[in-house]
Write a structure and sequence with these properties.
Length: 107
């Protein structure tokens, strides 16, 4: 009977070790789960920010196209305005002459 008791104690010790190893494994799984949740949350945040950046980029692109179109519309109007204003005289000179004098002063 001494041998049976000895085997039971040994089995109890081994079972205790198995329980401890299982608890350690469960702890590691919980840590991995928490880390995975954090990574998933961070990835979602990155995706949301990238979508925001894409929206801003699209808006900027549309605004740039609108400015380009407006500039193209303004160029002929500026030319027409200049041609119309060139008929006016200031101190005996036309605007074209004043512009030419001003450009000579810059040099």
């Amino acid at each position: 009977m001494g041998k049976g008791v000895s085997l039971a104690k040994e089995a109890s010790t081994v079972l205790g070790m198995i329980v401890q190893a299982s608890n350690n494994a469960m702890d590691m799984v919980q840590r991995i789960d928490a880390a995975t949740e954090q990574q998933s949350s961070a990835a979602e945040e990155v995706i949301q920010r990238m979508e925001g950046i894409a929206g801003i980029t699209n808006s900027t692109s549309a605004s740039t196209e609108q400015i380009k179109s407006s500039s193209a519309d303004l160029a002929p109007l500026a030319t027409e305005l200049w041609e119309t204003a060139s008929w006016f005289h200031l101190n005996g000179s036309t605007l074209s002459e004043l512009k030419q004098e001003k450009s000579l002063v810059k040099e």
